[in-house]
Design a protein that fits this description.
CBD2; Immunoglobulin-like; 4 helices; single chain; Alpha-D-Glucose-1,6-Bisphosphate, Chain A, domain 4; 16 strands; START-like_dom_sf
Length: 356
């Protein structure tokens, strides 16, 4: 049993998403044109779309507004089951679309194109239609009556000054700790004083002009601890030059590189892509991509990596990138500022991304 699945988090209420799923005019704008047949039968004009070679004859077998819609599809002998599930979330809702092949088979190229078509429709075209619907539901003449609907407000992010000072202090303390630890490590590896050589007389002390020499004592026992003999002679440090400890230069392996591109824009947001490249000879593990949004936008979904958002900073992490291979991270941003259609910054492991 072959299955294609796609999922997206949307900043819209379930009833609006349900309308985009079931309204024929809206469905034609983001997925495919639809003709209604007798009963619950539909004809999806998908011929020529990526992943489709003919039209799809579909029948609604389950409809529970605004939660679930299930279609049984017949595509020139290939039978599949298409399920759309809408789940409310704190920001809006989550839409999951799953297509399961029950009879027949998809060619390899057709299957890959179909999967990309579903992903593109859900993450790019559907959010644009939902934003357009939300704009139409706003009552611009608010002073003459109650508003029919309100757009969700995204609170602006203002970092706390006290927390920033603590962060700077922490970094300064960490730098001092590293310098002290480095000094201790260098002191530990320095060579000690040269060993005393038996049978070697010490060099005589240098003569000082104008000094009065004192004759040696002739009476009284000699002090053993202060006598100078061959066994206690201390050679000069200048006689044993230190060996150079300059380490051989080590060429570090090439690091990860990344390039950014704004894939598409829409009325209330945009879609960005970061392409990671691993030029090294080993898999790149533990990589981190940090994208800084220009305004207080909200990431509503991403593919190709795990992500988390803290204010305007969005952090992406994921599985290792094989040697000599690339990986694409795609993310959708909801933003009402039409002048902000790209991030302010992008880095991979601290190095800036190309394209910005």
């Amino acid at each position: 049993m072959i299955e294609i699945g796609a999922r997206v988090d949307l900043a819209h209420p379930p009833h609006r998403v349900w309308r985009a799923l079931t309204d024929r005019e809206l469905l034609a704008r983001w997925f495919a044109e639809v003709d209604a047949g007798p009963g619950e039968r539909l004809l999806l004009h998908t011929a020529g779309l990526p992943g489709f070679d003919v039209a799809v004859d579909a029948e609604v077998v389950d409809r529970r507004a605004p939660e679930s819609l299930v279609l049984r599809c017949d595509e020139a002998g290939r039978r599949s089951r298409l399920s759309c599930v809408v789940v409310p979330t704190a920001e809006g809702c989550r839409l999951s679309v799953t297509e399961t092949l029950e009879q027949g088979g998809w060619p390899a190229g057709l299957h890959a194109d179909r999967e990309r078509h579903h992903e593109q429709a859900l993450t790019v075209r559907l959010p644009a239609i939902l934003d357009w619907l939300a704009f139409r539901e706003v009552d611009l003449r608010r002073g003459e009556g109650a508003a029919t609907a309100e757009l969700p407000l995204v609170p602006a992010y203002h970092p706390a000054r006290r927390g920033s000072r603590r962060a700077v202090g922490w970094v300064a303390g960490a730098v001092v700790g590293v310098l002290v630890a480095g000094a201790v490590a260098v002191w530990a590896v320095l060579p000690g004083p040269p060993e005393r050589a038996a049978g070697v007389d010490p060099l005589p002390p240098p003569a000082v002009a104008g000094a009065t020499s004192r004759p040696p004592r002739t009476s009284g026992p000699a002090t053993p601890g202060r006598s100078v003999g061959a066994a206690t002679a201390r050679p000069s440090r200048s006689a044993s030059p230190r060996a150079s400890r300059t380490p051989a230069p080590v060429t570090p392996p090439p690091g990860m590189t990344a390039r950014y591109e704004t894939a598409s824009t829409r009325l209330f947001g945009w879609t960005g892509e970061v392409v990671l490249d691993n030029p090294g000879d080993a898999p790149a593990t533990g990589w981190t991509v940090v994208v800084t949004l220009a305004t207080s936008g909200t990431v509503t979904g991403a593919s190709g990596a795990d992500w988390r958002q803290d204010g305007r900073t969005v952090t992406f992490t994921g599985t290792p990138v094989p040697a000599g291979r690339s990986r694409t991270i795609s993310f959708d941003v909801r933003d009402g500022d039409p002048l902000s259609r790209s991030p302010r910054g992008c880095t991979v492991d601290g190095d800036p991304c190309a394209g910005l």
